[in-house]
Amino acid sequence: MAKTKMANQDSDRKRGKRMKEAVDAVRKGGSIRGTAKRFNVCRTSLDRRLKNNLHPFIKQGQKPFLDLFEEDKVSQWLREMASRGIGLTPSQLRDFVADYLKQRSMTMPNGNKRPSHGWYVRFMRRHPELKRRKESLREGARAYVTADDAEKWFASYDKFMGEIGIRHEPEKLFNMDESGFDFGGKGEFVLAPTKELMKGNPPRLTGNKKERLTAAFCISAAGALIPPFLIYPEPKPINATFLDNAFPGTEIQYTKKGWMDSATFLLFLRHLDRHILSDRPVVLLIDSVSSHMSVDIFQFAKEKNIELYRLLPNSTHFLQPLDNGVFGGLKKSWNTVLRRRLQEDPGAKTTKLVFAELLNKAINGIDMKRAAVSAFRATGTFPINKNRHGPEIFATARSFEQEVGLPERSPQKTSAQEAMEVFSSVLSTPVRAHYNKRMLEGCDVETSPSFATYRRLHMRAFGPIIEANAVTNSQSTAADITVSTSIGDCCQLPMATPRPRRRKLDLPNHVTSPAHIKSMCLKTLQKARKLGEKEKKAKAKYMAAKGRETCKLCKRTHPKTSSEAVDWIACDVCNGWFHVLCVGNIQITVMEEFVCIFCKK
């Protein structure tokens, strides 16, 4: 019985969805008979919904306490909230409706002040465009990226690839990124005894979940994989060998915390230089991490004819090929390798000694060439395709821009809307206002051919008419008739409070260009000068706070002949300080040695 009921529910959901699509198609100018045949719906049912302004999902039985058109408004709001990254859970939806009822001093038909879970189930059944889905976490900085930012980056990237002449050479385009691999793995659904036979969830043997190692990967748009570059935390062992049965060409480097830094990234570029083609130049797409940005890195890459091109900041979730087609499958394969290892030997420990071997098995567990080619294609970096990413990628930026409303109608006018404008233009203002008032009052008796034509054109152009404010302005037109804003007042889109944002790095996309390298060298020199001045001031401040250590000759902080600040000099033997005036105002450079009279004795 339960299976039959679920099948009927699914059938009602699909039938209502087809009817809604058919109604929209007729309003855009399609014929009723042809549209009914095309969407496999009853022609008379479709005609009745169009003539009587009925909702596509209307059916016999008790009507929902919210008008179906008001539910459409709520559904539209829920979709927009979810696309902005601030979607509502089922419980929050019920709380939202409860607040709406409270504002209007209303209750549910059964007297409750909050909708039940059954109402939520029926609401979802009436709106097939909604589905309960799991969110993907997105950091706040990534929410600021707009479609204009991406379009500018793609224009610059396309121009750069054309200038160096490798727009159609995938073997010369690479992408590099680091990722962490933990030793614990993730729990999955397994075949286990029922809850009556075993209490609690089935356990999973794992390694140390707090320990993880970093691996840097590099792939080409042609599907080639550069040997992994592993980064282990210090100290470096003396006799241990970590590369047994590793991927051929794998290299290990050691850092203080096991993370990538500027010196290690320079070593990675040397590693890359040894494994790529001698036919240069090649392009390496990198992110904007500070460890990838230094003068030494840029100069070495330029010497080896490796052009570093920076991805759009905070856009790696849709522009980084490794993040969008390789790391996901590789992490699943890694988890499978850990599971099989423990199934074969439950006491086996996953440590640094076997990490390279297990990582090699994970790499062999996926079709790396196919994954790499698909990843570049999915991000639009090769072949270059700026239209690869739809507007939903940038929807989260709407909450940080100027306030915008819910998307209502398409800016492009349909044939029905154009016909409505032409017909309205030939009517006098009093007649048009009279027709609008009759439609607002719900009059469906077509007393005259003119009113019948006006009513049908308006229905096809702007949809059905429901509760609205009375039209009091005699200059109102058909577009003045709107959906009730009672539920719309509650469906507000929140806007982010303006906050100071971090200043972006003033870097070009092509970071290895001669002009940028020269600019970085000048900035480095200027930074070194500022640091020297800062150290000099700090030393002077320290000496002032310390009291300047009285002169070993006059035993005073200042010489008797002067109360102003004077120069000091230190003995290179005893490190004692003397006034220059006290020792005879001698001229000694920094490189010369000074020995006081006490040490000479």
Describe this structure as you would to a colleague.
- The chain has 601 residues and is α/β, with parallel strands linked by helices.
- It is 41% helix and 8% strand.
- It is built from 18 helices and eight strands.
- The strands form two sheets. It has a six-stranded mixed sheet with strand order 4-3-2-1-5-6, with helices on both faces.
- A hairpin with a 6-residue loop joins β7 and β8.
- α1 packs antiparallel against α2, α9 runs antiparallel to α17 and α11 packs across α12.
- The radius of gyration is 36 Å and the shape is elongated.
End-to-end gap:
112 Å
Which blocks of ≥5 consecutive residues have pLDDT under 50? 1-10, 402-411, 465-485
- How does the overall form come out from the CA principal axes? elongated
H/E series: HHHHHHHEEEEHEHEHHHHHHHHEEH
User: How many β-strand runs?
Assistant: 8
Structural class, please? Answer: alpha/beta
Portion of residues within helices: 40-55%
User: Which strands sit side by side, in order, in the main sheet?
Assistant: 4-3-2-1-5-6
| Biggest beta sheet attributes | 6 strands, mixed
Kindly estimate the percentage of residues that lie in beta strands according to DSSP: 5-15%
Number of helices: 18
> What is the radius of gyration computed over CA atoms, rounded to a whole number of angstroms?
36 Å
Residue-averaged pLDDT: 80
Task: Please give a quick description of this structure.
This protein is α/β, with parallel strands linked by helices and 601 residues long. The chain contains 18 helices and eight strands.
